[in-house]
Amino acid sequence: MNKRNLFLLLAVVSLIAACSGSKKTVSSSSGEPTLKEAYKNDFMIGAALSAEQIEEKEPNAAALVPQQFNAVTPENIMKAEIIHPEWDRYNFDLADKIAEYGKKHNIKVNGHTLIWHSQLPAYARNIKDVDSFKTFFNDHITTIASRYNGKIDSWDVVNEALEEDGTMRKSVFLNKLGENFVTEAFRLAEKAAPNTELYYNDYNIEQPKKRAGTITLIKKIQAAGIRIDGVGIQGHWHVGRVPFKEIEESILEYSALGMKVMFTELDIEVLPRNFQGADVSQRVASNPELDPYVNGLPDSVQNQLALDYENLFKLFLKHKDKITRVTFWGVNDGQSWLNGWPVRGRTNYPLLFDRQYKPKPAYYKVIALKTNTGAGESAKKPF
Ligand code: XIL
Questions:
Q1: Protein residues whose CB sits closer than 6 Å to any atom of ligand 1
Q2: What distance in angstroms lies between residue 31's CA and the mean position of ligand 1's atoms?
Q3: Using one digit for the tens of pLDDT, what is the confidence trace for 278-309?
Q4: 231 backbone dihedrals φ, ψ, rounded to 5°
């Protein structure tokens, strides 16, 4: 064999190896549609990306994300502590990269998030005087929203402004600016980003009291003549305890206000936890009893997880005319924030892809709802 033929042979062998490598992790090569393909006429399917994934430094994610998802949200890099680390300094490096990533792969990008009480840099938390705080608030929203106007598709303008009882959260924003800060944030965002959709995002807002608070907020923004396009229900739920009834009521009530309804941070965790929601400041001390599946997930839990995802996507499909996007909070189990919150260092299994990026039984159930007529029949109707 001459040198040229040897080179060709090696190229073919490595191509085959690359293809069979991806076959293990991505179902599309088996001829089945991927998530975004299966749901293309229903709603977008998104994933939150870490900084490494935005930079395409994780080869498995770099291949899998554009195959499976048509929407992405940066998990952390557009939060104030990263994008606006000092009073007069912005750091747009990674945010620019996710905008380019979306363009390159034809994936929608949702900015997360302009105004949130958490992951705020220390200088902002410590501003004493109200006028300086107003200056921070105005500059932050205007600078970032205008930079990405036309470059990303949407913003979670305000994240988590409510308490569980539906009243305003006692945050630095409420304290310094009063209740109107949410409406004011949307007013500034609308002005700076006229071509970008604007959403309110929160956890547990499918629950009746917090839902009522959200509806009040939305109506207030609308009454002021300011644009709000949609509401993001985060969707951090627990296996066997997904609140189907409340989710369905929320879809109907939010959409009756003209809102696009989105599930923006979906994960279904399997580990013990004695409170609902996703308050990042809530922490629980580690203890082996709280981390029971270090060596793998028992079949019974794996099956319940698959059933929960199947029933959830059935419900989403029932209301596909009202739902525009379902985004998972992470690409695979190994990368999920639920390995570190509310207890540090656990082994959690909340997503559709496992630690090797292989699709889990839940993934196949979600796909089967679209490919197998009657496939979901096995799942008991919870709503
Ligand atoms: C989480 C990230 O996933 C973690 O990496 C970070 O340490 C804390 O924040 N609600 C939100 C998200 O709106 O921004 C949070 O993301 C999870 C809860």
A1: 75-76, 159, 234, 265, 278, 280, 337
A2: 34
A3: 999 999 999 999 999 999 999 999 999 999 99
A4: -130, 135
